[in-house]
Structure formats: structure tokens, C-alpha cells
Amino acid sequence: MALADELRTVVRAYLADRPEASWQEFARDVGIAGLLVPEEHGGAGCGPAETAAVAEELGRALSPHPFLQSAVLAVEAVKASAAPELLAELAEGARTATVVLPGDGDLRLDGELLTGVVPYAPAGELVLLYVGGLLVEAVPARREAYRTVDESRPLQRLAFQDTPVRRLGDGGSWTRVRDLGIAALAAEQVGGAQWCLDAAVEHAKRRRQFGRPIGSFQAIKHKLADLLLLVESARSAAGAAARDEMFAAIAGSYCTEAYLTAAGENIQIHGGIGITWEHPAHRYLKRATSDAQLFCPPQAHRARLAARVLGDDS
Question: Has UniProt tagged this entry with the keyword Oxidoreductase (predicted)?
């Protein structure tokens, strides 16, 4: 069995047995926080395939753990910095981290002082920012947690006012960090979409109308077949997303819309029960909706793809 498949099995079992486990416990028991950290810094030294397998399982379970921002974005940013000692902390899960990419906020770096606001950032204790062509670490003057529609993805507002920064390196790595984040998010979206498909299929087999399972009706069959094609295509796009910027843009666009479609169709197939608070279907629709804005909406991914493929004359 490949390492990615082994990780998928372990993470799924852990999330089923210990859904309330903290990030520190998850890091200690499974090593998830140090997945991308090089072995010499206490991590597993894994790559995109293992990252995608773990992210897919986390998305399937709607896990609130900060894998995306801390174990993927922050680790990749720090790997390209002059502060390798941070990798050991991140690998142990001792601290969580979040990364602010260029354009995520209205920020100004004046010498060693940072001023401005990041309106939306995934929650994390250590704040790393790409600003003024540099990668810096700064402690916000204020943090404000949001009451979000998708409570499984905590967001915060970060404010800086003449805040001293610690320079970690130049900002040239930010596109690679962004693309790896998009790839991990795409894998999460595939996991969520797969859960929606599985839930819809199971309901279609159990729910009966006119003496027959509703899955025997042609309209439901067509919906489920279309969803299967959509999810498998999204999985292929997510698997290629870590290759370069073009594949990341494809996955960012396709997987986002696939998840939104799967979450919506799952509710439709469930009928009345699908719109109740008691059923988890609405939580997947909320996650799909928030994911659609996390890096940028699908239209922005397609615009970036068009600029890459067609050039400036497009």
C-alpha cells in the first residue's frame, strides 16, 4: 500500500474515533502537522500526494483543524525563509500559524513597522505575512474572531498599528505557497464532494416512494451519474494541482464549482430532510460556499489561467 493510501486510512480512522481531538493531539498521534516539514526538522518530509490524501479526508469530515493554513501554507513559507527553527514548532503542533498573501489585506511596511488591516484570515497563532516584497512575522495589535457561516473554518480579522516585524526572508516564494494552498484546498473540496455523493447515493437506496427506492427513478439516476463524473473529474484536477500555477488555477476553478454543485444536489436528492438543521447536508453547503472565496472565486482562477495560457493579448 502506498504511503498516501496508508495516511488516508489512518486519518479517516482517527477522525472517526476522536473527532474532538485537538490539533496538538492530532499532531502527536498522527504527525499531521509536520507532514511537509523536512525530516531534519522533525517532520515526515512528505510531498503533494500525501498532502492531498490527508486534505481529502479532512474535507470529508469537515475537520476544523488548521491543516491548510498551518501545515501547508505556513510550513511552505517557512521552508523558504531564514527561520528553520519555526519548522520544529509547527511540526510538533506546538503553535498554529496562518499566512497572509499579497492582496489579502491593506498593509504598509515602513522600515521595520507594519500598519494596516487583514479583513479575513484563517485562524492561527503565528502570523506570517508577505508584504513589501518580504516575508515577515508580526504580532497583531488586535485579533477579532468572526462568527462565520461555516463554523468549521474559523476566520479572524488582524489589525496592525506600527507593529514591529521580524524579517524571515524575501517574498519570492509566495506564488508557490499560494499554489500549494490551492492544491490542498482542492483536495479538501474533493473530500467534501465525495461525502455529498456518498450521502446522496445512500439516501437514494433507502428512501422509498411509490413502493420503490427513489434511486430507481431516472431523474435521480441521472443526478447521481452526473455527480459521480463531477467528483472523479475534480479528483483528477486536484491531483495535478501541485504541479504548477496553471494546474492550480484549473483545480481552483473546477473543484470549487464541483463542490458547490455536489453539496446543492445532495440537499435536493434528500428533499425536505436535507434542509433541516438535524441533517449535516447544510454544513457541507456552507463549507463549499466559504471555500469558494478562500483564495479567490472561480472566475478569478479562470482569469489567471487565461493570462497564463493566452498571454497578455487575451
Answer: yes
